[in-house]
Amino acid sequence: MTLQLNGESLTINKIKELLYQSDEVSVTDDAYQRVKQSRATVEKIIENKETIYGITTGFGLFSDVRVDEGEYNQLQVNLIRSHACGIGKPFSQDVALVMMVLRLNTLLKGHSGVTVDLVDQLIYFINNRIIPVIPQQGSLGASGDLAPLSHLALALIGEGSVYYKNEEVDSRYVLNLLNRTPLRLQAKEGLALINGTQAMTAQGVINYIEAEDIGYQAEWIAALTHQALNGITDAYHENVHKVRHFKEQIDVAARMLDWLEGSKLTTSQGDIRVQDAYTLRCIPQIHGASFQVFNYVKEKLEFEMNAANDNPLIFDEDDETFVISGGNFHGQPIAFALDFLKLGVSELANVSERRLERLVNPQLNNGLPAFLSPQPGLQSGAMIMQYAAASLVSENKTLAHPASVDSIPSSANQEDHVSMGTIASRHGYQMIENARRVLAIEAIIALQAVEYKDIEKLSPKTYDKYQALRKVVPSITQDRQFHKDIEAVAQYLLDHAYSNEI
To answer: What's the predicted TM-score (pTM) here?
Structure first.
């Protein structure tokens, strides 16, 4: 199966399929034609010796400095080399792959003025899984993700490092191995590769995929907790949620009832208590609000995935061609969205930690052993797992500070407001990893708690989940190194993020 790109119709689901099924990409004929037309405009600019930013001039504060005609191509190479100053650990291979796909899709809109050779080089790297090594830090998120995308561009021209067959090697080595010629950058092409938001957007796409999955995973984990605490199902009745109108809340309530259908551990109001604490009773409202966030973020990401966001932009309309310097590289819309995503993720972890606290606290857990210890006093049981979860949610609260409210001027104040969107994307992913581990802790504790209540009384769907998780983590019969269990369950949850399973 091949993912066909045309600059207009790329979706997160298509990216998910690419990552999960190892698809190749191809380009439509009409997209190739747009690339050729925009390139012809660049050639005319060069032929007519026009003064156009980034083609015949320098960059940033040097935008008024005219470059000699014979040095247009060298200007682009110098740009890539000088801007490749990323710092820190590299983005994951998935993020770097998505970054290439997104940059390719942008170029196919026909507003960037690149050559067909550049397009074909990107396709070759994607389809052969030659993945640039791209440091995560160093982008301000305006004027594009300049540093990260420069490392991407370096790989295309045979410089820098790449992952090939999961080994980090020199790009030139891989190209020689595959008998592939490094790309020779032409006028405008270096700038066209790095002026854009593909680093923050690519990491944002991965964030969205994994955050949405955490939202779904949180429901069946919460359903186990609900049964361990003999929770009341009345609060999930559709009438309650329809009168509030939020679709996501209605959907969560319906899914919770589906997970709990057939359980002999749930109760009705008045059986044991009149109403549950908020962390059980308000799952549709709390989780549903996170799904509202995710839906907002998805829309903004898919806009950007199909946007022309470099500078300058080339237009060919009504037999007239013109070039405009603008600011579509500014990451503010995506920065806001990715900061918002952090809030949705943070709350899933917050409420999970409060639920698992109810499971281990003998004052709240409806008769379960304190900390679910097999020998209270001699053995601590799940006591410190709750500490670990509390630490993670507290860390998330610090990471949730919006990166997008910060700005530092750059390029001698020519670029005097920036988005910091890539920081938002990176912090968001840290929060997702933390949230997944909190949910893993709740799952481990809920599995143990339902054993005290009789697993045969579980709903059929959660019983299946119980059986699947018991292959990953055993029952707690004595104290052990629980960090191994937490990591094993977290990995189980991550492994399902791209599989279209709930």
So the answer is: 0.95
